[in-house]
Amino acid sequence: MNEQQGFSAAGIPTVVLVFVLGLIGFGLEGYGLTHQAPVLVAVALGIFVHLVTVFMSKGFFQVAPNEGQVLQLFGKYHGTVREEGLRWTNPFCTRRRVSLRVRNFESGKLKVNDSDGNPIEIAAVVVWQVIDTAEAVFCVDDYENFVTIQSESALRQMAQNYPYDSHDDGKPALRSHGEVINNHLRDEIQARLDKAGVRVVEARISHLAYAQEIAQAMLQRQQANAIVAARERIVEGAVGMVAMALDKLKAQGVVELDEERRAAMVSNLLVVLCGDRATQPVVNTGTLYGG
Q1: Domain boundaries, the chain
Q2: What's the fold here for domain 103-210?
């Protein structure tokens, strides 16, 4: 079922018409009461005009900006009115207000397993808007509740497709690829809400963390990875500095070292450069080979 434009007339001219009909009714009743004949006919016409006036007054309604009024005539969809201001329609029509404004909500914290099987906590903010009032009202029972439940379902499904942390295989991860994850989440939610006449404007992760039972272990793993990465960088730099020092000593002829002394010097330099504490210098007062 798709939205269609419902019948409605401008409210102000209709108000004038109803007011004029009311005056005509009073005039007929007054004429019937002040003249001998035909009294019953005039009074009856006046009462009938008043009844028509009261009946027509039930057809007035207001439409606020970014709002739609869904009309039903004897249970059948009769169209949607989106024109702002005071409107008038068939008094037999029932009306239901549907907001067309942009709305948002934050899902609760869901506990799911990522693609690696690690339990995580995740939540999202979803920004959405009704674009088809007929589908929102008649295709689902409660479109607001439908949006909430389906968004959480899509969030749970999306989280199971990605790992929490990135790996060397280049696969997107929840923690490091925010734009990719948010776009995937929006597409997942939109696929579920198309039948409800809802457009997803934006969807983004608002909370992401390991579950409490593994948070400490995962923190230690992250610290270990950081330490290993830092040590690799330190060792790489230290080896380069040692090679540069040996090359300059040889190029400038400062000292000639045999293989054994060269190995000892390399070992000492690596200890100094790779150590995590400050070294204490030892001054050699003997000869180079005699100690």
Answers
A1: 9-97, 103-210, 215-274
A2: Tetrahydropterin Synthase; Chain A (3.30.479)
- pLDDT higher for 244 or 283? 244
Q: What distance in Å separates the CA atoms of residue 101 and residue 193, rounded to the nearest whole number?
A: 16
> What is the b/e burial string over 252-282, where b = at least 16 CB atoms within 10 angstroms of the residue's CB?
eeeeebeeeeeeebbeebeeebeeeeeeeee
Residue 170 exposed, middle or buried by CB count within 10 Å (0-12, 13-18, 19+):
exposed
pTM for the model: 0.69
Query: 108: buried, middle or exposed (CB in 10 Å: 19+, 13-18, 0-12)?
Result: exposed
Banded model confidence at residue 169, pLDDT cuts 50, 70, 90: low
